[in-house]
Design a protein that fits this description.
By secondary structure, the protein is an alpha/beta fold. The protein is 40% helix and 16% strand. It has 2 domains: 2-105, no CATH class; 123-431, Spore Coat Polysaccharide Biosynthesis Protein SpsA, Chain A, CATH 3.90.550. It is globular and about 65 Å long.
Length: 444
């Protein structure tokens, strides 16, 4: 752990890029594998341990103060750590980190250590405390935003859950929160044969949509022929450089799947929320919308409820506005990044790499306008909608034909933000095996 007058953020171990800001008393998590560093006059460096207890470390720091803490940490350091050459300056530290970065193994972004998640949970609660201490900023967002929960009218059990856990605390805060009736794709006039490489037009609720499956790589006479798996694996290796065989096999298998009526219905459901929110943005001054699917729930590991999630999100959106930080989409719940992430916006928010899932996310007015102008609202592909949104982050896809189409539609400088790791929410299927946890908005 780094402590004291320097805070360094490892941007990319392979390119050896670092940023350095002055934040006295800050702690920095160092990726596993770094060498132990020693103290110096102009910065303090605590000994790194693979089994460090981060909450205990912070507690000791708060109780003892930086100077006494460093002395005790150094006294307890193992002999091999003390044998490490002393670091005399920030420049020397950067040089040392660059040397270590060149030796470091690529980081698998889906592997989140218990220590890292424990630290994230602690940072979440610290951020929530800060949000509630300055509640006026979050309260100001109530008139600028709304919450819409996509749910089939027939999903009675899920709706009862949402009414009790989501609407009750949000309505008590004065937040505009309501259901949006989801679209049951099984009731749409779709030709399933055209899911395997064809195209079909669909008119629904006065809007025209194109279900474009022409890029499906499993077509018998497609451009890949018998080499489709090899091509997808090659593309996966190029895009997801740090991911292992499990991720590769899962992504490549999914790429060969066709769309389903349920996935079409899911897209239409989200698209309808975007359209309605954009209309309110243009007529009533709405600035952003939080979209939930009715299987979203707070990550139980974080100990939050929906009131806390709203307070955190609203506080961060207000802070982004104060700092004039533009954004298009903010993932509140997601899958961990599969490609390198960008800069940190706060202790709990980052510019993510490629990530999926749309059980909880926010779209700004700018994002709504840009999605509408891009054609991505009415243009559906053979893959799930969250995969398309994730591809907007990387501007690429393992299916090169689909990548070209996404790139043609992608709004320039699309900016995604996300809460770290898994975000603040999960899906029911992550925590229970039950009838209500099975997919309902996007059935097969």
């Amino acid at each position: 752990q780094l402590l004291g007058n320097a805070r360094l953020q490892l941007e990319d171990a392979r390119s050896q890029q670092f940023s350095c800001d002055v934040h006295p008393g800050e702690l920095l998590l160092v990726p596993a594998g770094w060498q132990a560093l020693c103290t110096a006059e102009d910065l303090s460096v605590a000994v790194w341990s693979e089994h460090v207890d981060m909450p205990a470390l912070r507690k000791a720091l708060a109780e003892q103060g930086a100077e006494e803490f460093m002395e005790s940490a150094w006294a307890e350091a193992p002999a091999e750590a003390k044998a490490t050459p002393r670091i005399a300056s920030i420049g020397q530290l950067l040089e040392h980190l660059c040397e270590e970065a060149a030796k470091a193994e690529p980081r698998n972004h889906h592997v989140i250590s218990p220590v890292a998640f424990q630290t994230f949970a602690q940072d979440v609660h610290a951020a929530l405390a800060a949000a509630r201490a300055s509640s006026s900023a979050a309260a100001s967002e109530q008139g600028r935003a709304c919450v819409r929960v996509i749910s089939l009218a027939s999903a009675h059990e899920r709706r009862r859950m949402i009414e009790g856990t989501v609407f009750r605390p949000l309505l008590a805060r004065g937040v505009d929160a309501a259901f949006h009736d989801g679209v049951d794709g099984r009731e749409l006039p779709l030709d399933a044969q055209l899911f395997r490489g064809g195209q079909q037009r669909l008119r629904f609720q006065g809007e025209d949509y194109l279900v474009d499956c022409s890029c499906w790589p499993g077509a018998a006479f497609g451009p890949f022929g018998v080499h489709v798996v090899e091509e997808l694996e090659r593309r996966h290796a190029a895009i997801f450089k740090h991911e292992g065989p499990d991720h590769r096999n899962s992504v490549c298998k999914n790429a060969l799947n066709t769309t389903t009526p349920g996935l079409v219905g899911g897209h239409l459901s989200h698209a309808a929320v975007w359209r309605a929110a954009l209309e309110r943005a243009r007529t009533c001054g709405l600035e952003w919308v939080m979209v939930l699917e009715d299987d979203a729930l707070p990550d139980p590991r974080l100990g939050l409820d929906w009131g806390g999630i709203w307070d955190l999100v609203a506080h961060h959106v207000a802070d982004l506005r104060r700092r004039c930080e533009s954004w298009d989409i903010l993932y509140v719940g997601r899958y961990p990044s599969g490609t390198p992430e960008g800069r940190r916006l706060s202790s709990v928010v980052v510019e993510p790499g490629y990530c999926c899932r749309t059980q909880t996310y926010c779209v700004s007015r700018r994002g709504l306008e840009r999605l509408a102008a891009s054609g991505l609202v009415e243009h559906l592909f053979h893959c799930p909608q969250d995969e398309v949104l994730g591809s907007l982050i990387t501007n690429d896809h393992i299916n090169p034909m689909l990548a070209e189409k996404i790139q043609a539609h992608r709004p320039p400088d699309w900016r995604a933000l996300a809460f770290l790791h898994w975000g603040l929410t999960l899906q029911l299927m992550d925590v229970e095996t039950s009838g209500r946890a099975e997919s309902q908005v996007a059935p097969c």
